Amino acid sequence: MYVPFELEMPGDLAGALGALAAGTGAKTMAMAGGTNLIVDMRAKRERPDRVVGLGRVGALRGMECGEEWISIGGGTTVTDLLQSKEIAEAAPSLVESSRLFAGLMVRNTATVAGNIACGSPAADLVPPLLALDADVTLASVAGTRTLPLDEYFLGYKRDVRRPDELITRVSWPRLPQSSDQSFINAFYKLARRKGDAITVTGVAVTLVVAGGVCTKARVALGAVAPVVFRARDAESVLEGRALTPARIDEAARAAAASSCPIDDVRASAAYRLHTVEALTRRLIAQAWRRSTDQ
Amino acid sequence: MSTERTIMLRVNGRDEPGRFPAHRTLLEALRQIGHTEVKSGCEKGDCGACAVLVDGMAVDSCLTLAWTAEGAEITTVSGLGDLDALHPVQQAFSDGGAAQCGYCTPGIIIAAKAIIDRHPDPTEEDIRIGLSGNLCRCTGYTKVFEAVSEAAAIMRAGSDGR
Question: Strands, E, within B49-154: which ranges?
Answer without folding.
Answer: 51-54, 57-60, 73-75
